[in-house]
Design a protein that fits this description.
heterodimer; A: 112 residues; mainly beta; B: 116 residues; four-stranded antiparallel beta sheet; 0% helix
């Protein structure tokens, strides 16, 4: 059974700091890994999608890497801003099913 | 592109009542998903449709839950005889078929259900 774990569960950093969020999954047979952002009481916004054949994806200040063999992904946020405060969720797609299996998320607070 | 729309945003009901939620996907998207999220947890998959066909259902979807997507457009999720354990955020997402490895989901803002 695929399990997705995110560490840390919560993180508080001062504005301007570079930070790394971690995601691990138990079964390396995935099609892709996605990172999402969720603001309180809201839906999810897709940030980055890494296909299983790829190693990383970048969008602005965000960079996500994927090491499928070790079952890990990291989301790097450069020069963090208070507006980055949110919960960040990773999810994997495995087998031939289109369902996403999510981690519990990392709650990020960027202090001004 | 107006995004995925879900109604209502909030629903408060008494235990034992039936509730129905609606999801309007992005117009050209052929896949539609329902997820459930409880506080502090990631979303859990409930079911998904390709066009009007319901292709997969989670074992989380008990007999009290039913979902439809008539004509492959909007979708409804009905919960009969609600229980307090049904209290959660119900999220809808849609996607355009691009192959499983490149399937990007667009989520709505969700319907927050509270069962008293």
């Amino acid at each position: 059974k695929q399990e997705v774990t995110q560490i840390p569960a919560a993180l508080s950093v001062p504005e301007g700091e570079n930070l790394v969020l971690n995601c691990s999954f138990t079964d390396s047979a995935i099609y892709n890994l996605q990172w999402f952002r969720q603001d309180p009481g809201k839906g999810l916004t897709s940030l980055l999608l890494i296909q299983s054949s790829q190693r990383e994806q970048t969008s602005g200040r965000l960079n996500a890497s994927l090491d499928k063999s070790s079952g890990r992904s990291t989301l790097y946020i450069a020069a963090s801003q208070p507006g980055d405060s949110a919960t960040y969720l990773c999810a994997v797609t495995k087998d031939s099913s289109y369902k996403l299996i999510f981690g519990s998320g990392t709650r990020l607070l960027v202090r001004p | 592109d107006t995004g995925v729309s879900q109604n209502p945003r909030h629903k408060i009901t008494k235990r034992g009542q039936n509730v129905t939620f609606r999801c309007d996907p992005i117009s050209e998207h052929n896949r539609l998903y329902w997820y459930r999220q409880t506080l502090g947890q990631g979303p859990e998959f409930l079911t998904y449709f390709q066009n009007e066909a319901q292709l997969e259902k989670s074992r989380l979807l008990s007999d009290r839950f039913s979902a439809e997507r008539p004509k492959g457009s909007f979708s409804t999720l009905e919960i009969q005889r609600t229980e307090q354990g049904d209290s959660a955020m119900y999220l809808c997402a849609s996607s355009l078929s691009r192959g499983i490895a490149n399937e990007k989901l667009f989520f709505g803002s969700g319907t927050q259900l509270s069962v008293l």
